[in-house]
Amino acid sequence: MDFFDLRKQPHLLGKVVVAVLLIVVCVFILKQSPAFTGTSLFSRREIGVTHVLVTGGAGYIGSHATLRLLKDSCRVTVVDNLSRGNIGAIKVLQKLFPEPGRLQFIFADLGDAKAVDCIFAQNTFDAVMHFAAVAYVGESTIEPLRYYHNITSNTLVILESMAKHGVKTLIYSSTCATYGEPEKMPITEETPQSPINPYGKAKKMAEDIIIDFAKTTDLAVMILRYFNVIGSDPEGRLGEAPRPELREQGRISGACFDAARGIIPGLKVKGTDYSTRDGTCIRDYIDVSDLVDAHVKALGKAKPKSIGIYNVGTGKGRSVKEFVEACKKATGVEIKVDYLGRRPGDYAEVYSDPSKIKRELNWTAKYTDLEKSLRIAWTWQKSHRNGYSTASPISS
């Protein structure tokens, strides 16, 4: 019998050694992959990668924040029950960022404490941006309990899971509605909080819970109280698409666009007898791109055992009549306007003093041309007549 002597076959020996080395390398690489270990990239902490949980990330503001975080190379998990959000926005984001470990969407209700705990247990979060909330002043006066459950109670659920799973940074989406109707303008962070509607009250309660909890921990907290949000992504990827049944309660910009497109016969301006320069409410309109930038800067500046509270606005008040005129110019449509009585829970005049956020976070509103912001939003609206469900070529 002949014996196979590798020593007499040097070239074959070399090939065997190379093959063995390749097998070892392949096995090592496979062991590092989520498929081999049975773990998701979202459950692993990676140096240099910030994993942010965005609650309400399928909504108007949350989706724009998710887009910015992804552009900044963050890893993002969106949790949304889609009661107010749009799965279409998530699909847009998934198409823009299809790489593994960039974006995941989880359908869940924050009122389900077990589901929320499971989400925290299965993922490794570095920070939470908490946007999820019902957010219509008028609706809150009709359904107050819904607002206290959705805003206040759900925030408590988030805090409990953060504490249990060691997540140390919270960026909280609050509102100028917590101030109510202050005696002096502009509003600073030291202005007394006296909310006059359930929406503002629920947000203030959530703030109080966050602050009280943070004082007993090393939590890094940023609370952003922002004013009236308008606009959309300048590149036309995302926009505002409220559900049809919520149009009556929605933002004035959405109502203006609906009137301009003929979806509703005209615009209803509620309240013309306020003590303001033209009798209509005065608000501080902040572009969503600026608002998102404030959240990103807050995330970057958040420090353990520290609570930052900031107003996010332009510092300039515009009346509803001025807003309507800007919308007419932006759309090129002579919108019909009906003037009605006041809306329950509304306040006459609210605008911010943004000097603190400029001083401490180096943030300043850049998109302050009201007509331009509305024109950008209008471009998206024209090509998405039915929201994210359809997209058509832009027409004049």
Automatic annotation (TrEMBL):
Q: Which GO terms describe its molecular function?
A: UDP-glucose 4-epimerase activity
Q: What EC number(s) is this enzyme filed under?
A: 5.1.3.-
- Which family does the UniProt entry place this protein in? Belongs to the NAD(P)-dependent epimerase/dehydratase family.
Give the stretches traversing the membrane.
12-30
Has UniProt tagged this entry with the keyword Transmembrane?
Answer: yes
The record's section on CDD domains has: UDP_G4E_1_SDR_e
The GO biological-process annotations, alphabetized, read as: galactose metabolic process
Superkingdom: Eukaryota
Q: In which pathway does it act?
A: Carbohydrate metabolism; galactose metabolism
Tell me its cofactors.
NAD(+)
- UniProt-listed NCBIfam families: galE (TIGR01179)
Annotated ranges, domain NAD(P)-binding: 53-368
Protein name (Swiss-Prot/TrEMBL)? UDP-glucose 4-epimerase
Write out the entry's keywords from A to Z: Carbohydrate metabolism, Isomerase, Membrane, NAD, Transmembrane, Transmembrane helix
